[in-house]
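From the thread on structure requests for the teaching lab: each student submitted one protein with a one-line request. Submission from student K.M.:

"Model tRNA/rRNA methyltransferase SpoU type domain-containing protein from Ruminococcus flavefaciens 007c, tokens only."
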Amino acid sequence: MPEIIEITDLDAEELRPYADTAETRLLDYFGSGRGIFIAESPKVIKTALGSGYTPISLLSERKYIIKCPQLIESCGNIPVYTASSDVLSELTGFKLTQGVLCAMKRKPLPSPDMILRDAERIAVLEDITNQTNIGAVFRSAAALGFDAVVLTPSCSDPLFRRSVRVSMGTVFQLPWTYLTKGSPDYVKKLRSLGFASAAMALRNDTVSIRDPRLQAEEKLAVILGTEGEGLREETINSCDYTIKIPMANGVDSLNVAAASAVAFWELTKYCDI
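Reply posted by the TA:
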């Protein structure tokens, strides 16, 4: 049974994961590269549990202990720290809109080869640091039938709190990992695994996402870059296609999160999802 503990000391060491706004410090919480992350909201926590992540503790507004008894029970014999909404806001630095946070252990990341060997449609994120965009791309990839997401090393961590929340927990369901080499080497790596690569960018040789050659590719990697700067020139030059979304009214581009959803819908291999 979980142990319900009333919070009396906001500086208690066991509450540090919830109070630490520098999430990078949670990446090595136990030392030796053994990190944790924070999942927020009952739905996201349930998804993480269902995907095999191990809870360490819960932070819950008092009313949610009564409101979500099954969630608390499903976390097993872990401490559940509780207090009023005002106290939790003081501890975390923000108002908990859905009343529950859960500190969870990270899993070891798989190698790119492991998650890509059976994949047919993947999203590749290059140097994207905006956590909201990371989460939104994951949600679109999961919803629209993509098999995996891979990220360059300078991308923001998909398990940072905002990305997890925006993704609605799909970061736990969709296989993902980091690439170990920078552009353009990773495009060559993808090609060695059988993937044609399609860079989302505006150039003279850009083709529409409706181009039938794209749908015909057995394995396709859709590569997306940062807001403003977009993809690196050497990445674009290394790709098999440069692709764009047809637009009207003189609009030349969409936010990367919106663009990913449109592209994934058009380029998914299976149209009956």
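TA comment: The chain has 13 helices and twelve strands. The chain has two domains: 3-105, 112-267.
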